[in-house]
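Below is a filled-in request sheet from our internal design queue. Each sheet records the structural input a requester submitted and the sequence that came back. We keep these sheets so that new team members can see what a complete request looks like end to end.

REQUESTER: design group, bay 2
PRIORITY: normal
MODE: inverse folding
CHAIN LENGTH: 315
BACKBONE (tokenized):
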């Protein structure tokens, strides 16, 4: 008896959709991966699992036997919001390759700020020839918000580069060489000693607007922010005020409240902002497909749904 088809359910364009179906099928030659657009009524009635990328909940409601979904993204706040009140279990992508890619980006953009690249760009625009003082990495505090798989890999990469590294998380963590903080008091303490703040938190009810006026004010004068997480974690108006006043020297932003970032938004032209198009740690198709395939294989062997997302926490 053949196995039930596995639907791929997404809101992506045709090119991305086809690439995902091909990569997943190549990683699972014994399964039949079918895009939701091509799914017949009989297959819809038999599917117990689906692989998803920001799916329309209305599409998932057409799969009456569905027990669980495996996201091909690491961020699942939209899935939790859409499916959190249903019995469906959600599995998010935990990919070591993504962690390495994020760690590379964390180091690259930290060095960009550490070596005063934004200041030299401003000087070039004003025809100013002036060398700025050099700061040794061990005298620069880098703080990470979030010490999950992405944050832990980034922290170790920054530590190896010689920076003084600290991290904050929902619950206490212990990482070699990393000063760990937790809770509201821990956040305030870490911010006070952070020259470059890197946000890698998931978007939840607790993290939304976490970086508001008060939190940004706790950073030292001239500190910088890197946001690789989600736009709504930072209060946009408060960030602009901190940059305009000079309290923050620069912000590297890869995520925004609205994406793509509308052309009329202030970030594009602000001299103390670097805008990135949500490109920091893109999913690697072959690596992600192999991880999803392994989860599906274990499910076929033991019938146990590998649920790893707690809707109550939001990740």
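RETURNED SEQUENCE:
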């Amino acid at each position: 008896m053949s196995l039930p088809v596995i639907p791929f359910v997404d809101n992506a364009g045709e090119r991305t959709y086809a690439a995902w179906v091909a990569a997943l099928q190549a990683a699972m030659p014994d399964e039949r991966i079918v895009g939701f657009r091509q799914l017949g009524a009989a297959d819809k009635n038999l599917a117990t699992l689906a692989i998803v990328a920001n799916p329309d909940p209305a599409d998932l409601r057409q799969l009456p036997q569905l027990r669980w979904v495996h996201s091909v993204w690491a961020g699942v706040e939209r899935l939790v919001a859409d499916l959190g009140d249903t019995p469906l279990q959600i599995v998010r992508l935990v990919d070591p390759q993504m962690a390495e890619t994020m760690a590379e980006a964390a180091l690259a953009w930290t060095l960009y700020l550490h070596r005063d690249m934004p200041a030299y760009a401003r000087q070039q625009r004003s025809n100013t020839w002036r060398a700025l003082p050099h700061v040794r990495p061990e005298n620069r505090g880098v703080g990470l918000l979030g010490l999950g798989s992405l944050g832990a890999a980034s922290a170790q990469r920054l530590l190896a580069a010689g920076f003084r590294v600290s991290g904050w998380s929902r619950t206490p963590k212990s990482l070699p060489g990393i000063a760990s903080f937790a809770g509201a008091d821990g956040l305030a303490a870490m911010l006070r000693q952070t020259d470059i703040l890197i946000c890698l938190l998931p978007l939840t009810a607790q993290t939304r607007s976490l970086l508001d006026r008060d939190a940004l004010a706790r950073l030292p004068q001239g500190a910088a922010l890197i946001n690789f997480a989600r736009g709504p974690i930072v209060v946009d108006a408060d960030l602009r005020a901190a940059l305009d006043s000079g309290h923050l020297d620069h912000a590297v932003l890869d995520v925004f409240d609205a994406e793509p970032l509308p052309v009329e938004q202030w970030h594009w032209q602000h001299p103390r902002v670097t805008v990135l198009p949500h490109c920091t740690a893109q999913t690697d198709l072959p690596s992600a497909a192999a991880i999803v395939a392994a989860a599906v294989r274990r499910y076929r062997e033991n019938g146990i749904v590998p649920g790893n997302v707690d809707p109550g926490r939001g990740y």
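SHEET NOTES:
- The longest helix spans residues 96-114.
- The chain is about 35% helix and 15% strand.
FILED BY: M.R.
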